[in-house]
Amino acid sequence: MTDFLAEISSSYDNVAVSYAELVVDGADWEGEAFDLLAKLIPDGPVLDVGCGPGRTTGLLAELDLQVTGIDLSPGMIEVARRDHPELDFRVGSMTALDLRDGSMAGVVSWWSIIHLPRDVVPQAFAEFHRVLAPSGVLLMGFHVGEQTTHKTSGYGGHPMNVHVHRWTAAALSEIALAAGFTPYLDAEIPGDRLFFRR
Question: How would residue 30 be classed by pLDDT, with cut points 50, 70 and 90?
């Protein structure tokens, strides 16, 4: 495994249990974004990329979406399976998805690209585009800005070694366009969430 992927995986293994205990509730805008996603893809499988302990996967499933969660961290997947035994969770990397071309109706990347090096993010977008069916939808959440910080602990003080990269909507949209996506714009969606169509 590439070094940065190994660091992300081990860091989230360290915090998996405490993360699930501490990050419990979302916000109203989260439900609004997921509701819109469900309207855009009334049927077909959805991939929750970087699903962590399965909180967002569970919310998507409550909207009757056929959702699978993947995460780089085996520890996170273990917690997700414990907390949501009825759902499908798998260990995997967004940089090399173990899925057939065009097999997904939707992909959700909910604050999960933030640890990828900036020069690797286009690879993730290319994978999202590859696994989406024509007219499939990508929902992207991210931290807004341009700076990068080094995170050495978190979620109860457990050791971590990850970089947190902030992005502008314009920069991510440029990468998405280069990968073959078309922006889906809605005035009620704030700037830290973006919808794209394949």
Answer: confident
